[in-house]
């Protein structure tokens, strides 16, 4: 890859008239030793799986394997369809779709890890709802996934994308940053605006701990995916309106690394702290595994 | 760079709920299955660390058995794998492993079919990625990302040179290599991760080396792997 920072990505894109997405496709083809068409076809198939997961989560029983959660996407979708959502229809739909994919994941359905299974709802939530709203074709969406992947590649190599390493900020936070920056590109924003969207989004999740009840990818992971999709839309809007991330996104990524490294182990996917160790969290743990 | 390409960020396609506890577990089971060369009729699965604490909630048990059936990480039959395996004649025992282990997500599998047994320990290191850390009590290290050759052989001078000479002649690049032995001039194991597919002819040629006892391969791309 010719880049390792967001700043380098912006510079290359501005010099060569590329987007994050088209740059990543070029670099990926070189890395894989295959043609751009071959690599594009793999990503196009992943997008199909994302759309299937949205549909499944909105239409089928998504009760999780533990039985603790499920069907929340359908509850939210019903309210959105009735025109009652305080968020409005578009953000409400993105939230419902993100919940749908995360619930499919928790019920052992098929998803694409973006960047992880725990954060798999955010990008499909934003992408599939925006595609319906703006009438984009699948080719446009697939290029958008390369854009999201480029942003994630920089975050993952300079900080982290797993809850066990860096807390939920690394998982859900990274997915929001990826979705926000790539949505800017999908809507025709500049690489510089996309970079600002990444920085704005990541700032909003700094410090978020990973504290899953019972160690399962259910509580609070699923609702955080729903919230995450809405935050990504907000960050993309701010950036396209001209709001700047005064602290550059590369520096925010460094802060995420610093905060994650300082996070106590009990808040990094061990179920030893946070929501997992509340009275109710402990009760659920006891019920699931016969211990507290 | 820890993450080398776009599909290590977007992907893998997988059945949930956890990339480490589900997708990684499928791959550990699948590595053992491919080493055995056929479906096991008996499987003893011991979980350590976080795997032992939460395997039921994450479907780690279903995932390992799915791997023993050679399913890929995104196979929709994963939630029914244990029932499918039992119908196919596999007896399965799960347990909580005893003793030391190197990683919080560790599984040790003892699987057998037709007088042949494979004992494999694998760890799930995140994002669906795994490392196999021991095979039949030999200490090894491989990831199953690349086509992998596992040679059981006698410990004697020139053995590795003979193997690598064949690789050189066939123009096959070795990405990484490890070996271990149980004692001087005793049983040994050599593992090679390769940049190209392993043909039947190559395996036959390696098997023909007089001190080689067995040649096995692991290649997850052959059925429905990542990138298809």
Automatic annotation (TrEMBL), chain A:
- Supply one GO BP term: gluconeogenesis
| InterPro entries reported in the protein's UniProt record | Fe-S_L-Ser (IPR051318), Ser_deHydtase-like_asu (IPR005130), Ser_deHydtase_asu (IPR004642)
Catalyses: L-serine = pyruvate + NH4(+)
Kindly state which keywords UniProt assigns to this record, in alphabetical order. 4Fe-4S, Gluconeogenesis, Iron, Iron-sulfur, Lyase, Metal-binding
Pathway in which the depicted protein is active: Carbohydrate biosynthesis; gluconeogenesis
The protein's GO terms of the molecular function aspect are:
4 iron, 4 sulfur cluster binding; L-serine ammonia-lyase activity; metal ion binding
Describe the family membership recorded for this protein in Swiss-Prot or TrEMBL. Belongs to the iron-sulfur dependent L-serine dehydratase family.
Q: What is this protein called?
A: L-serine dehydratase
Origin species: Paenibacillus contaminans
**Organism classification:** Bacteria, Bacillati, Bacillota, Bacilli, Bacillales
From TrEMBL, chain B:
Enumerate the InterPro entries for this protein.
ACT-like_dom_sf (IPR045865), ACT_dom (IPR002912), ASB_dom_sf (IPR029009), Fe-S_L-Ser (IPR051318), Fe-S_L-Ser_bsu (IPR004643), Ser_deHydtase_bsu (IPR005131)
* Cofactor dependency: [4Fe-4S] cluster
Q: In which pathway does it act?
A: Carbohydrate biosynthesis; gluconeogenesis
The UniProt record lists the ACT domain at: 148-223
Q: Which reaction does it catalyse?
A: L-serine = pyruvate + NH4(+)
Q: Name one GO molecular function term.
A: L-serine ammonia-lyase activity
Please, one GO biological process term? Answer: gluconeogenesis
Q: Which UniProt keywords apply?
A: 4Fe-4S, Gluconeogenesis, Iron, Iron-sulfur, Lyase, Metal-binding
Source organism's superkingdom?
Bacteria
Sequence similarity: Belongs to the iron-sulfur dependent L-serine dehydratase family.
Protein name (record): L-serine deaminase
Q: Which organism is it from?
A: Paenibacillus contaminans
Taxonomy, top ranks, is: Bacteria, Bacillati, Bacillota, Bacilli, Bacillales
The UniProt gene name for this protein comes to: sdaAB
């Amino acid at each position: 890859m010719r880049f390792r920072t967001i700043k380098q990505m912006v510079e290359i894109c501005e010099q060569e008239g590329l987007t994050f997405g088209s740059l990543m496709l070029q670099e990926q083809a070189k890395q894989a030793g295959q043609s751009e068409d071959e690599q594009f076809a793999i990503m196009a198939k992943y997008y199909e799986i994302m759309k299937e997961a949205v549909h499944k989560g909105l239409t089928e029983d998504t009760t999780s394997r533990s039985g603790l959660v499920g069907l929340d996407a359908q509850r939210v979708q019903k309210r959105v369809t009735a025109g009652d959502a305080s968020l409005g229809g578009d953000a409400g739909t993105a939230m419902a779709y993100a919940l749908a994919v995360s619930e499919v994941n928790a019920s052992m359905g098929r998803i694409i890890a973006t960047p992880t299974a725990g954060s798999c709802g955010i990008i499909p939530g934003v992408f599939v709802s925006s595609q319906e709203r703006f009438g984009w074709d699948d080719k446009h969406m697939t290029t958008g996934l390369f854009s999201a992947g480029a942003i994630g590649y920089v975050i993952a190599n300079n900080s982290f994308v797993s809850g066990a390493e860096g807390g939920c900020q690394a998982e859900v936070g990274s997915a929001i940053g990826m979705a926000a920056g790539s949505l800017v590109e999908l809507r025709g924003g500049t690489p510089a605006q996309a970079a600002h969207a990444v920085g704005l989004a990541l700032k909003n999740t700094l410090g978020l701990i990973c504290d899953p009840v019972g160690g399962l990818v259910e509580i609070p992971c699923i609702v955080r995916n729903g919230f995450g999709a809405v935050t990504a839309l907000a960050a993309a809007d701010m950036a396209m309106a001209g709001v700047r991330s005064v602290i550059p996104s590369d520096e925010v990524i460094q802060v995420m690394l610093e905060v994650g490294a300082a996070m106590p182990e009990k808040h990094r996917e061990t179920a030893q702290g946070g929501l997992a160790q509340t009275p109710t969290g402990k009760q659920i743990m006891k019920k699931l595994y016969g211990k507290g | 760079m820890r993450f080398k390409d776009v599909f290590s960020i977007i992907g893998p396609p997988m059945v949930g709920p956890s990339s480490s506890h589900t997708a990684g577990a499928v791959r550990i089971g699948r590595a053992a299955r491919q080493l055995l060369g056929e479906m096991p009729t008996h499987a003893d699965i011991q979980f350590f660390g976080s795997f032992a604490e939460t395997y039921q909630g994450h479907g780690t048990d279903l995932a390992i058995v799915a791997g023993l059936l050679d399913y890929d990480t995104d196979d929709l039959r994963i939630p029914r794998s244990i029932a499918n395996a039992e119908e196919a004649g596999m007896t399965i025992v799960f347990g909580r492993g005893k003793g030391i282990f190197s990683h919080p997500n560790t599984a040790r599998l003892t699987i057998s079919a037709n007088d042949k047994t494979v004992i494999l320990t694998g760890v799930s290191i995140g994002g669906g990625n795994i490392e196999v850390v021991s095979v039949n009590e030999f200490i090894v290290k491989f990831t199953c990302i690349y086509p992998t050759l596992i040679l059981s052989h006698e410990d004697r001078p020139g053995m590795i040179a003979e193997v690598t000479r064949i690789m050189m002649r066939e123009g096959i690049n070795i990405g990484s290599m490890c070996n271990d032995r149980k004692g001087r001039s005793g049983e040994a194991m050599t593992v090679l991760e390769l940049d190209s597919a392993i043909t039947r002819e190559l395996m036959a040629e390696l098997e023909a080396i007089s001190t080689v006892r067995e040649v096995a391969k692991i290649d997850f791309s052959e059925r429905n792997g990542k990138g298809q």
